[in-house]
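Quarterly update from the structural biology core.
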Amino acid sequence: MTSSSDFSIEEARSYLASLSPQDRLGWAYKTFDSSFALTTSFGIQSAVLLHMAHTAKIAIPVIWVDTGYLPPETYCYADQLINKFDLDIKVVQSSLSPARMEALYGRLWETNSAKDLEKYHLIRKVRPLDQALDGLKVSCWASGVRGNQTNHRRTMTWLDPIRERFSLRPLLEWTVKDVFYYMQENQLPQHPLFEKGYSTVGDWHSSAPDDGDVKGRDTRFGGLKQECGIHLSGTMGEGI
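Predicted structure, tokenized:
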């Protein structure tokens, strides 16, 4: 398997299942070469995949979609990891500034509408990411998603076609404990909000700490959604 045109996705999935997360990254780097990239949110568990790529000396672009609404702690954590792992970071933002978006569409996260959240995510996350992937000529991108995070992610495989390219999930079978122990063993810094009870964090207005009854991705987006759209195959919000 040396190029994206000479393997079947079924064979690739079968092969990837037998590999470690680090070796899955190595396989994609060898297979897709300069058209392979990582994405990161600099969230609670982001240090794991970034550390794996760094220690394996996989020198590829790391794409960060900065919505303009991230918590201050995330911006500080991002700066820490960028310097620690010497990342080739590509910061991606919407062509609409937060102020302009709010003037045109309002504060879309305050309406208690899943449709408005989809519009928000399309503007601030999905379109900017896809434009960056197009600009970098990326054929395959890896992320740190795990199968037990959402209902949709339980349907994922190691390698799936998504919006005209491949998405690799090296950590798909990992648990929260796997992530915790890997970070502990490798002395990786925790996101500052982890100590405040957050098990996942995105934008400041759509994230909350676990409270006993509501945990994990159910704390995001006011409980209206589990996914922001980046990991969905379809295109949301046509005509926006």
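The domain at 9-223 is CATH 3.40.50.620 (Rossmann fold).
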